[in-house]
Amino acid sequence: MNAAALEQMTASLLIVEDEPLVRDLLRTRFGGEGYAIHEGEDGRSALRVLERERIDLVLTDIVMPETDGIELLVAIREKWPELPVIVFSAPTNQLYLEVARRLGADEVIEKPLNLELLSADVKRLLGRNG
Fold it and tell me: Taking Cα atoms as reference points, which of 67, 59, 122 lies closest to residue 86?
């Protein structure tokens, strides 16, 4: 298989998380599953990535400095309405999680993240089996 065909098969994920350890954990997990990984530490940096890269799915925290996950979700739904978005936050942020659900997040997940379930959600939203 040539490099161009391989690149077409590789889904690109954008991980948006202000906590470096959580971002590293997600990068390691999904990079190890063969996804191309892009990162942002807040919604503002994520929007810059979305403007210049082909992204197939966004994983984002809600509570972040600068532009938060709710603002990011609203911007994504306006400019890239078909882009799958998984939103996560601490269980103490139930109101934010409900707002994200109502604004069109494809999945809303409480931290701590269950990586097995998160991986299954990513595969399902990308239309992949297994």
Answer: 59
Q: In whole angstroms, give the CA distance from residue 97 to residue 86.
A: 11
Whether 21 is in a domain gets the answer: yes
Q: Does residue 79 sit within a domain?
A: yes
pLDDT tens sequence across 33-44 = 999 999 999 999
What is the pTM (predicted TM-score) of this model?
Answer: 0.90
Asked whether residue 5 is assigned to any structural domain, the reply reads no
Number of domain units in the chain: 1
72 to 8, 9, 58, 108: CA distances (angstroms): 26, 26, 10, 14
Over pLDDT 90: what percentage of the chain? 84
